[in-house]
Amino acid sequence: MDDSNCQIYEDEIQSLEEEIKLLTEKYEDKQQESTFFSDEEILMSIKSLQEEFQGESKGHESPLDLKAQLESLETDLSFLMKFTGIQFRSHSKKTVERTGNRTVQKHRLSGNCHSLSFQLEFHLLEMQSAESVSAVVTDLHIVMASAEDSDITKFVSRAEERGSLLTFFRSLSTYAEWYEHRRRTFLHFK
């Protein structure tokens, strides 16, 4: 066997080993996430989901009702995306910590707002009391594609300090809309 064929096979083996390593890490993450729940909690969740599903299926008369409701939600989502200019490409959620009345989840979001792309990573701390559930965003980290603009850098820094997702998305929507107008105007004059 010549050296070029041998190198091709070695590269393929290395690629497969890396893929196995990634899949093993994903599997271990899923295993770790599932160990946060006791058998009793899992059984109670399954039972409550079954009861909830049975209650919902009694409330809906036919699959046509569900289809109409889905179409209505899709219409609302489409309207919001056109109105704000924000489109999400991906979202992942991982439970980091779970205790009696406290849950910490790590979220990752990526998307576009008009022509600006963004990525968010944050922890969501949920505290449950007898009366209510409160959620607080912590460790907010934002990455913007156009980080060379000093205005967006200042804005992103303030949003990260305050940990306010609502403020970030509101401001991003307005900024990205005007950013797009400025870009078109400069293209017009070139």
Overview of this protein structure:
- This protein has helices at about 5-35, 40-60, 65-85, 150-160, 165-190; strands at about 85-100, 100-115, 115-130, 135-145.
- The protein is an alpha+beta fold.
- It folds into two domains: about 1-50; about 85-190, no CATH class.
- Strands 1-2-3-4 form a four-stranded antiparallel sheet.
- Helix 4 runs antiparallel to helix 5 (about 165-190).
- The longest helix is centred in the first third of the chain and has 32 residues, at about 5-35.
- It starts with a helix and ends with a helix.
- The mean pLDDT is about 80.
Please render the helix and strand layout as text.
Blueprint: H1 3-34, H2 39-59, H3 63-84, E1 86-98, E2 102-113, E3 116-128, E4 133-144, H4 150-162, H5 165-189
Range of helix content: 55-70%
Flag low-confidence runs.
none
The largest sheet is: 4 strands, antiparallel
Order of neighbouring strands in the sheet with most strands: 1-2-3-4
The number of domains is 2
Taking the alpha carbons of the first and last residues, their distance comes to: 59 Å
Beta-strand residue percentage? 25-35%
User: What's the shape?
Assistant: extended
**Mean pLDDT across residues:** 81
The secondary-structure element order is HHHEEEEHH
Number of helices: 5
Q: Give the strand tally.
A: 4
Radius of gyration: 23 Å
Structural class: alpha+beta
Coiled coil: 6-33
GO cellular component, one term: chromosome, centromeric region
Keywords: Coiled coil
GO biological process, one term: CENP-A containing chromatin assembly
